[in-house]
Specification:
Largest sheet: 6 strands, mixed
Oligomer: single chain
CATH class of the largest domain: Alpha Beta
Structural class: alpha/beta
Order of helices and strands: EEEHEEHEHHHEHEHEEHEEEEH
Number of helices: 9
CATH topology of the largest domain: Rossmann fold
CATH architecture of the largest domain: 3-Layer(aba) Sandwich
Bound molecules: adenosine-5'-diphosphate
Strand content: 25-35%
Strand order of the largest sheet: 6-7-8-3-9-10
Number of domains: 2
Helix content: 25-40%
Radius of gyration: 22 Å
C-alpha cells in the first residue's frame, strides 16, 4: 500500500505542479489519468525519489519515501516518460548491465532474471538485436523489463503508451496486465481507454490536484440514467436548458453530436445513452474548470 498525504511541489519558476495531493494506492494496477500538464510526471518523479517535494508525506508500507530514498530505490521499478537507450548495445547485454546495477550480483541469478524478463516482454527472439533497431513498442517493453528487475514492490510507469501504434499499444497493455497484483503499480496516461481496459482503481489529476478517485465501473455506474445525446447541424448552436451540462461534443458526418448530463431527459431531440469512462472524465474536468 502506498499512502500519499498532502504532497505539494512548486517549481523554481513558480508553477504549482502538485497541490496537496492525497491518495491511497493498493496493490495492483492503479491508473493516474489527467491532461498534459496536470502534474502526473511531477508526482511520478517525486515517488521515484528523483525530485524533492516541498511538503507532505509518502509511505510505502513502512518506508518513508521522501526521507529514506535508498530504501525506496531498493524496491522501485521505474519506466520514465523519456526512457533513453543505448542504441548500439543489444537488449540482452543492456538488461544484464541494468541487473548488475540493481545489485543482482550472482551471475546465474542474473542470467535467469534477464532471460525470464526478456521472455515475459516477448523480446527473447530479438535479444541479440541492437536497441537502436527496436520499434517504439519494443523499446517500451524493454523499458518494462528493466523496471521489473529485482522484483520491485513499487512500479511506476509514466505515460508508456504515448506514441505507440494501436497494435504495439495493445501488446504493451497486455503486458502490464500480466505483471499482476503482487506490487503497487502506478500507470499514468492521458488516454481514457488505457485506464478503462486495464485498471481496477484510478484517480483523475488536474492542475496539480486529485479531482476524483474510485473504481472505473462504479464511477461509470454513478452516471447511469443521467446521460443524453443529441445531434444538430454543425452550423446550429446546440441549445441546452438549465441543469444540463455538456460533457463533450464531436463532429460526425458534418453534424455535431453532443453528450450531456441531466437528471431527466432535456427534450424531444435527446435520447438516453449509456455512460462511459470518457463521460466520467469530462464531467470531472468540467467541474474543476
Ligand atoms: P503531466 O505529466 O501531467 O503532463 P507535469 O508534471 O509534467 O504534467 O507538469 C506539471 C506542470 O509543471 C506543467 O505546468 C509543467 O510545465 C510544469 N513543470 C514540469 N516540470 C517542470 C520543471 N522541471 N520546471 C518547471 N516547471 C515544470
Amino acid at each position: 500500500m502506498l499512502t500519499i498525504e498532502n504532497l505539494s511541489k512548486t517549481y523554481a519558476n513558480g508553477v504549482h505542479a502538485l497541490r496537496g495531493v492525497n491518495l491511497t494506492i493498493p496493490r495492483g494496477l492503479f491508473g493516474l489519468l489527467g491532461p498534459n500538464g496536470a502534474g502526473k510526471s511531477s508526482l511520478m518523479r517525486t515517488l521515484a525519489t528523483l525530485q524533492e517535494a516541498d511538503d507532505g508525506t509518502v509511505k510505502l508500507g513502512e518506508i518513508d519515501v521522501l526521507r529514506d530514498k535508498r530504501a525506496v530505490r531498493r524496491v522501485l521499478g521505474y519506466l520514465p516518460q523519456d526512457f533513453g537507450l543505448y542504441p548500439r548495445i543489444d537488449a540482452e547485454t543492456l538488461l544484464d548491465h541494468f541487473a548488475s546495477l540493481k545489485g543482482i550480483d550472482d551471475s546465474e541469478d542474473r542470467r535467469q532474471s534477464v532471460e525470464s524478463l526478456l521472455r515475459l516482454t516477448n523480446l527473447w527472439q530479438v535479444r541479440k538485436q541492437r536497441l537502436g533497431t527496436f520499434s517504439g513498442g519494443m523499446r517500451q517493453r524493454f523499458g518494462i523489463a528493466q523496471a521489473l528487475l529485482g522484483k520491485p514492490e513499487l512500479i511506476i510507469v509514466d505515460e508508456p503508451t504515448t506514441g505507440l501504434d494501436p497494435e504495439e499499444r495493445r501488446r504493451f497493455l497486455n503486458l502490464l496486465a500480466r505483471i499482476g497484483e503482487e506490487a503497487v503499480i502506478i500507470f499514468s496516461t492521458h488516454l481514457v481507454a488505457d485506464i478503462r481496459e486495464l485498471c481496477s482503481e484510478m484517480a483523475v489529476i488536474e492542475k496539480g490536484s486529485v479531482r476524483l478517485t474510485g473504481q472505473p465501473d462504479r464511477l461509470i455506474a454513478a452516471l447511469e440514467g443521467r446521460l443524453w445525446c443529441t445531434t444538430v447541424e454543425s452550423h446550429e448552436p446546440a441549445v441546452h436548458g438549465s441543469g444540463v451540462t455538456v460533457l463533450s461534443t464531436h463532429l460526425r458526418a458534418g453534424r455535431t453530436v453532443a453528450r450531456v448530463e441531466s437528471a431527466c431527459c432535456p427534450g424531444p431531440a435527446y435520447r438516453a445513452v449509456q455512460p462511459n469512462l470518457e463521460d466520467v472524465y469530462f464531467k470531472t474536468l468540467r467541474e474543476c474548470a
